[in-house]
Amino acid sequence: MNTPVQIGLPQVVLFLIAVLGIGLLISSLMGLFSSRRELEVFEDEDGRRYRRWRKRRRELRWKRGTSGIIMLILAVSLLWLTFAVQSYLGLTNDIKVARVHANTFTNDPHNMDLQLTMLDKNGNPTSDERYSINGDLWRLECVMIKFPTWMNILGIHSSYKLTRLEGSYNDSKLESSSPHVVVELNGGVGDFFNQTYGNSLTKPFVDATYGNGVFEPADGKTYDIYVSQTGLYAKQASN
């Protein structure tokens, strides 16, 4: 599985804002629920006097806690802003994971010559292979691990793994009766679902696990494949 961690200046700034918000939150709560100390004077049988500080129980100080309430509102607002902005950055910062180019044969329209280039999270090629695939459309599949929203503040992108390449036919009759070629990528799906979502140790940190795929026609055009926080999608390559 690939789990990109997107750490840059925006994430650093948001982390500092979150720390400030948590600090204000703790300070404001301590200000609202503060304890008092009172000086008490005791006198024994011989007339000697003793002084002792006595700590009163914590109580809610509404009248003197106005500034604390304002700080509390400010702290919650900063934390909400941090999560909202980081979630937006995570949802809009997609990663290019592959490039696909497929051509059909003139004398064999239901077969294609396909070139698949897989990329790492920095856009560098990790493999470049050619395949002969049956069908009119190519389909690239992956498995995904979606993390809880609160983990976005750490810049953690959804995990993904490209698992399968195959073709399909536009005609449903051909789809059910014609041969298919399935290419397993990166070891396939394996026992992915049982090892992640079914594992009680990973459940607090895993929001969902699922399979996802994108398909396009073998029209001779080149497509860039991106992974978002929710799955794969394809765009025609600009170069």
Brief account:
The chain crosses the membrane at residues 12-33, 65-89. The chain is α+β, with helices and mostly antiparallel strands and 239 residues long.
List keywords for this structure.
239 residues, alpha+beta, 2 domains, 5-stranded antiparallel beta sheet, 4-stranded antiparallel beta sheet, 26% helix, rod-shaped, transmembrane, membrane, transmembrane helix
Would you mind describing this structure in some detail?
It is built from 4 helices and 13 strands. The chain has helices at 9-32, 66-92, 172-177, 192-195, and strands at residues 33-34, 37-43, 49-55, 59-60, 95-105, 108-119, 125-134, 137-146, 159-168, 182-184, 208-217, 222-227, 232-236. By secondary structure, it is α+β, with helices and mostly antiparallel strands. The model has no long low-confidence stretch (mean pLDDT 77). Helix 1 (9-32) runs antiparallel to helix 2. The longest helix has 27 residues, at 66-92. Helix content is 26%, strand content 40%. The strands form 4 sheets. A 5-stranded antiparallel β-sheet has the order 7-6-5-12-13, with no helix packed on it. The chain has a 4-stranded antiparallel β-sheet with strand order 10-9-8-11, with no helix packed on it. The protein folds into 2 domains: 9-91; 94-236, no CATH class.
* Count of all domains: 2
Distance between the termini: 28 Å
Q: How many strands in all?
A: 13
Number of helices: 4
The stretches of 5 or more residues where confidence is low (pLDDT under 50) are: none
Portion in strands: 35-45%
In which range does the helix fraction lie?
25-40%
Spatial sequence of strands, sheet with the most strands: 7-6-5-12-13
Strand pairing plus helix content: what structural class? alpha+beta
Instruction: Tell me the major beta sheet.
Output: 5 strands, antiparallel
Keywords: Membrane, Transmembrane, Transmembrane helix
